[in-house]
Design a protein that fits this description.
- By secondary structure, this protein is of the alpha/beta class.
- The chain has a single domain, classed as Aldolase class I (TIM Barrel), CATH 3.20.20.70.
- The protein contains eleven helices and ten strands.
- Strands 1-4-5-6-7-8-9-10 form an eight-stranded parallel barrel, surrounded by five helices. A two-stranded antiparallel sheet has the order 2-3.
């Protein structure tokens, strides 16, 4: 069994239990469920910001503990003040050390577009995402059938959530649909967790023009971002680059300065 298969099996068992305790009607009564979302896609296209979706991530299956002491409020607020177009928050606890509470706490910043980064496999999780304060959700091609992606993306759109549809290879583009706002190319193979940014460059011109293009994982330098921009990408999801340090906000700020310097140089 691959890591991805293991995660999906765990999610199925987990939500079979949770849905019995907290119903969909309970979720729909929460204040956050009825709030107006902040558009991540619009923020990514805002020229006054960087196009970076900066991630808050405590651990990963491949690296173990990444940062167990960082404050979600301090880090996510610092990211946004520093020019991030949005933040991605890992809410999976078993494999990534996150929680729904992390996202809800970050939601105290009403201007911040928040992507819920998790392995979403059912309608309950889509409703839950809106109820905990997310503005956008991630749907992963490798984890879902085409019909499932259509159903979940349509539900997300109906309640105001945006959808980032994640692929790793060109053939997965066939699973995209009209309810998807953004297509992300994950440079990390979710079956092996190996990273190769060449994947983004190979797929870039295959992504239909109607979607905002995002490159995810393994982006370690301002130079790579500039090259990805030239290839047509609007957004760049970066996490470990910042979270592996003692001060993620300071590391993010330094990275943005490098990015500005490279832009001026070019």
């Amino acid at each position: 069994m691959t890591i991805l298969e293991d995660i999906i099996a765990h999610k199925k068992m987990m939500y079979a239990t949770i849905a019995k305790t907290i119903t969909v009607k309970d979720l729909e009564k929460r204040t956050a469920f009825n709030r107006e979302v902040v558009s991540l896609s619009e923020s990514l296209l805002d020229k006054s910001r960087t196009g970076i979706i900066a991630e808050f991530k405590r651990k990963s299956p491949s690296k173990g503990i990444i940062n167990s002491s960082a404050s979600v409020v301090e880090v996510t607020s610092g990211y946004y003040r520093g020019g991030a177009s949005g933040v991605s928050i890992l809410t999976d606890n078993q494999y990534f050390g996150g929680s729904s509470a992390d996202l809800t706490i970050a939601r105290s910043n009403k201007l911040l577009p928040i992507l819920r980064k998790d392995f979403i496999i059912n309608e309950y999780q889509v409703i839950e995402s809106k109820a905990i304060g997310a503005d956008a959700i991630l749907l992963i091609a490798a984890a879902l059938r085409k019909t499932e992606i259509h159903r979940l993306a349509q539900l997300a759109a109906s309640i105001g959530l945006e959808v980032l549809f994640e692929i790793h290879e060109q053939k997965e583009l066939d699973k995209a649909n009209q309810f998807v706002n953004m297509i992300g190319v994950n440079n990390r193979n979710l079956k092996t967790f190996e990273v190769n940014t060449d994947i983004s460059f190979e797929i870039a011109d295959k992504i239909p023009s109607g979607f905002i293009k995002i490159s995810e994982s393994g982006i370690s330098s301002a130079l790579i971002i500039n090259e990805l921009r030239m290839a047509g990408y609007n957004g760049f999801l970066i996490g470990e680059k910042f979270m592996l340090t003692d001060d993620p906000v300071k590391t993010f700020s330094t990275f943005i300065n490098d990015l500005a310097w490279n832009n001026d140089k070019n």
